[in-house]
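Allow me, if you will, to draw on your knowledge of protein folds for a short while. I have a record of one protein: its chain in single-letter code and its fold written as C-alpha cells. I remain grateful for any guidance, and I place the record below:
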Amino acid sequence: MTINQNKIADAAEREQALDPARSFIVQAPAGSGKTELLIQRYLKLLGTVAVPEEIIAITFTRKAAAEMRNRVLEALERGKDITVPEESHAQKTWELAKNVLLQDERFGWQVSDNPSRLKIQTIDSLCAALTRQMPFLSEFGVQP
C-alpha cells in the first residue's frame, strides 16, 4: 500500500492527536477537518478494543452525534474498497477503517448490521444511561 506523502501543514499535530495515550483539545476554524480528526481518533481507538462499546464519543447535540456516527459508518464502508484514496487525510481514515474492519471480523462485531454498537452519543444521553444503572447498582429500586 502506497500512502500519499503530500501532507497538510499541521500533519504532525494531527498524527499526535491520534495517540490513544494522550489527551488533546482541538481548536480550528470551520472546514479545517476537526470532525475528520475526531473520526480518525475514534477509529484508531476502535482498532484497539475487543468490543466497540469500550469506546465512547460524546457530543453536545443529537445532530452532531448522528453526523459523527454516519461519518464513521461511511468511513468503514469506504474501508472495504481496495482503492487507496488520493488525499492524505482520506488515506489515513481509510487505513484506520481497514484496521477496524479487521477487528470487526476478528471479534464478530457486525457493526455494519448493528451500528448502535458504536457508542457515539450526547452528554445528556450518557448521563441518562448512567442514571438508569444507578438503581440496580445502588439497590435503591426503580429509577427516580
Q: What stands out?
A: The two ends are 55 Å apart (CA to CA). Residues 9 and 17 are 14 Å apart (CA to CA). The beta strands are 56-59, 119-122.
